[in-house]
Amino acid sequence: MTVPATADLVISGGTVIDGTGAPRLKADVAVTDDRIVAVGDLSATQAGRRVDAAGKVVAPGFVDVHTHDDRALLSMPGMDMKVSQGVTSVVVGNCGISLAPLKITKRPPPPLDLLGDESWWTFDSFGEFLDTVDQAPAAVNAAFLVGHSTLRVGVMDRLDRAAGADEIKVMRGKLEASLEAGACGLSTGLWYKPSEKAPTQEIIEIARALKAHGGRYVTHMRDEADGVMDSLEETFLIGREAGVPVVVSHHKVTGKNNWGRSTETLKLFERYRKTQKIGLDVYPYHASSTVLKPDSIEISKRVLVTWSVPHPEYAGRDLDDLAREFGCDKFEAAERLQPAGAIYFSMDEADVQRILSYPDSMIGSDGLPHDEKPHPRLWGTFPRILGHYARDLGLFSLEEGVRKMTSLSAAEFGLVDRGEIAEGKFADICVFDPETVKDLSTFEAGATPAAGIAHVFVNGREVWNTDGSTGNRPGRALRA
Ligand SMILES: [Zn+2]
């Protein structure tokens, strides 16, 4: 290392966990403009600003690989729910739901409405969406997936059937144009109504556009309950047929009769990973959240309402209690709340920990930024990995926890020069206190910032510190 004579910023006296999984080491980190220019003893460097990181860890900013932040980038560009956790890049457009390319005049069908009502669906082309993000940048960087359900809603007159050959051609064309504009892959949400009638072959035909652009196939699978093994087989088959890497989103096994089956699913990952590229992400909670859906109510021991269009006053309430007050069963109660969203307690903590411990699982929040009473994962996911799972439970080392949220994620999603503290990399950096870092968001109060995050830098500029948001918005649209 050559010690630079000057730098814009030196973060000094901290312990560097570089994101690769390598053991921590004492080192200063120098930043000039948007890049890390040196890592080592930089006491002789003349710094424009010197940040004291004594007693703290200096890590790469975290990559939230599973988000629904497409609209949040535009409507809440400070992105406090992410930068307060040390997140510096997000992957949007997951679960088949992307804000582009789709222009509509009436409320989109669930789950597309998780991103907002018709007033937000105004981007006919993906390029237009990315240009808008460029013109009004957010605090974080973002990489973009194209949603299969979004394509279906834009192309098909009705969604309760397979797409015809002409429709597939149009969808593949739209995917191609989006990839050319900079999207990094295709996502599906085959469990949801707009896409549940799409046969495997439909996805394969559309996904064939990915290979030439180096894109990936990312999926909220058809079934995460009784049929989880078949769904994994389907996912891996699509990857092989299209000749592209796949990512299984928010991997889990739901429903009490499936508890423990992550031993089976992870074995299947192992088997197929020998011959094809397969990744997975997971969030660190044993409750899920999405739109209000009867099949999820069915397999959950508890359901919490997160939002309701006709009854906003019931956000945060237990569905069982509402059913009792209404004098009906919970399915009818749910019907009265539609359109609506909910949190579902339907997983086993042992499965969650087994999947978190799997060496190649990435961390993604699946946070829902527009929910009235959001699942705590929106504000808590990354500090929960560092504090609860690494430090308190010792599920893995802090180095390993950081790797699952940085270099591994950047590699899987093709984020160039990010996810690592090293000379020449982008200066996306999180400085945190390893003793006090902790998620504070709960199922009762989901929108609570975490403790212990000291400084967060995106492309060399500070976006969050112990005083809160700095107001800077240095994020970029990361075009693949
Ligand atoms: Zn999903």
Report what the structure shows.
By secondary structure, this protein is an alpha/beta fold. It folds into three domains: 6-60 and 423-437 and 449-469, Roll (Urease, subunit C, domain 1), CATH 2.30.40; 62-294 and 345-412, Metal-dependent hydrolases (TIM Barrel, Alpha-Beta Barrel); 295-344, Dna Ligase, domain 1, CATH 3.30.1490.130. The chain contains 15 helices and 24 strands. It has helices at 72-75, 80-83, 126-135, 148-155, 165-181, 200-207, 228-242, 262-273, 294-298, 319-326, 330-337, 349-357, 377-392, 398-403, 407-412, and strands spanning 6-12, 15-16, 25-26, 28-32, 35-40, 46-52, 57-60, 62-64, 87-92, 102-103, 122-123, 141-147, 185-189, 216-220, 246-248, 278-282, 287-291, 302-308, 340-345, 361-363, 429-432, 453-458, 461-465, 468-469. The strands form five sheets. Strands 8-9-12-13-14-15-16-20 form an eight-stranded parallel sheet. A seven-stranded mixed sheet has the order 3-2-7-21-22-23-24, with no helix packed on it. Strands 5-4-1-6 form a four-stranded mixed sheet, with no helix packed on it. Helix 4 (148-155) packs across helix 5 (165-181). The longest helix has 17 residues, at 165-181. The chain starts with 5 loop residues before the first strand and ends in an 11-residue tail after the last strand. The model has no long low-confidence stretch (mean pLDDT 97). Zinc ion binds next to loops.
